Amino acid sequence: MILESRSIIFSHDELATALRPLLEQKGIFDEIAGEALKASLDEEGEVQVKVTADGYDEMAPMNSREVGVAVLNHCIDKGIPLPRGSYKELALRGDHIALIVRLQTGEPEAAGAMGF
């Protein structure tokens, strides 16, 4: 079996673009700069994003599910291929959010079947 793993890392500005529909749904119609978004892990180790711009410091963080849906939709809108049967998860890479895509293909190799 082959396991393919790919990381799609979002810049701060690209994350702000991806989260725009979610922010609007939460009543934030101002232009939020990417630097005003802070990604971190919650108590369960899941990715969350908080708006740190003035006036929004009381807003609850966007949870992993909300952020995941937003970045998946953004990838679809941008034409970034995401295999339907793949395992997808959010992770932090430094201070950036990454969408990790894993796909298993093929059958498990029999021991010594490689021929070398």
Structural class: alpha+beta
Rg over CA atoms: 17 Å
Report the strand count.
5
pLDDT < 50 stretches: 112-116
How many helices does DSSP assign? 2
- Helix fraction, binned, reads 25-40%
Order of helices and strands: EHEEHEE
The biggest beta sheet reads: 3 strands, antiparallel
What does this structure look like?
This protein has 116 residues and is α+β, with helices and mostly antiparallel strands. The protein has one domain (2-105). The protein has helices spanning 12-25, 64-78, and strands at residues 2-10, 37-41, 47-51, 87-93, 96-105. The chain has a 3-stranded antiparallel beta sheet. The protein has a two-stranded antiparallel ribbon with strand order 2-3. A hairpin with a 2-residue loop joins strand 4 (87-93) and strand 5. Residues 112-116 have low confidence and may be disordered.
Write the layout of secondary structure elements.
Blueprint: E1 2-10, H1 12-25, E2 37-41, E3 47-51, H2 64-78, E4 87-93, E5 96-105
Antiparallel strand pairs: 1-5, 2-3, 4-5
